[in-house]
Write a structure and sequence with these properties.
With 102 residues, this protein is of the alpha+beta class. The chain is 58% helix and 21% strand.
C-alpha cells in the first residue's frame, strides 16, 4: 500500500511540474506575441509615411514595451520623425533612438 502511495505521489509531482513548465512556456509565447505586435505596429506606421528613408530603420521591442530604433536616416528630422511615430504607438512605453544620421 505504501508503495502505491509513493508511486502515485511521484506521478502527481511529475504532472504538476509538467503543467508548470507548460504555463511558463505559454507566458513566454504571450510576451513574444505582444513584442512582435508592437514592432509590427511601429513598422507599419513608419511605412505609412511613404518615406523610403524610414524603411532603413530597424525596430526591436522588449517584453516591457521598450522599443529600440537603429539603422540610418538621411537627416536628423527623419530620425526625430521615426522616434515621434514610435512614441505615439499603442503599447510603447519608451523609445531608445540609436538611428545614425548619414
Amino acid at each position: 500500500m505504501k508503495l502505491k502511495a509513493m508511486v502515485l505521489g511521484a506521478f502527481v509531482a511529475v504532472g504538476a511540474a509538467s503543467a508548470m513548465s507548460v504555463m511558463a512556456d505559454s507566458a513566454d509565447v504571450g510576451v513574444y506575441v505582444k513584442d512582435s505586435v508592437i514592432t509590427t505596429k511601429v513598422k507599419s506606421k513608419l511605412a505609412a509615411k511613404h518615406m523610403s528613408t524610414l524603411t532603413k530603420i530597424k525596430v526591436d521591442t522588449d517584453k516591457d514595451g521598450v522599443v529600440w530604433l537603429s539603422g540610418t536616416a538621411p537627416t536628423k528630422d527623419a530620425s526625430d520623425l521615426a522616434e515621434m511615430i514610435t512614441k505615439d504607438t499603442d503599447g510603447v512605453r519608451s523609445v531608445h533612438n540609436n538611428i545614425a544620421v548619414e
